[in-house]
Write a structure and sequence with these properties.
3 helices; single chain; two-stranded antiparallel sheet; 6 strands; four-stranded mixed β-sheet; alpha+beta
């Protein structure tokens, strides 16, 4: 079984399985954060993940999700919807 070695701020070095780790990727997928609960003290922790750490975590089978810190607003949706009604080539809207 694959194990991931990391450090708990309270307990020191610990070993986790891919199911124990959650990876949150920034848009673009090269960097993000990973989080885990220490199996010894159960303290929930979050750590930054540079591109190397992301690659290792993905290679071990850690599940991920892409987090968008700037979600689409209602105003943007309304503007896009209105533009679809008047644009003769709707695919052009996606290019911008």
């Amino acid at each position: 079984m694959t194990t991931i070695k990391t450090t708990c701020t309270r307990c020191g070095d610990i070993h986790l399985t891919p199911d124990d780790v959650a990876l949150e990727l920034h848009p673009g997928g090269r960097e993000g954060d990973y989080r885990f609960k220490c199996p010894t003290c159960t303290f929930l922790q979050r750590r930054p993940a540079n591109s190397r750490v992301v690659s290792v975590l993905l290679a071990t089978g850690v599940q991920f999700e892409v987090i968008n810190p700037d979600p689409i607003t209602e105003e943007e949706i309304e503007a896009f919807s209105a533009a679809l009604e008047t644009e003769p080539d709707p695919l052009r809207l996606l290019a911008g």
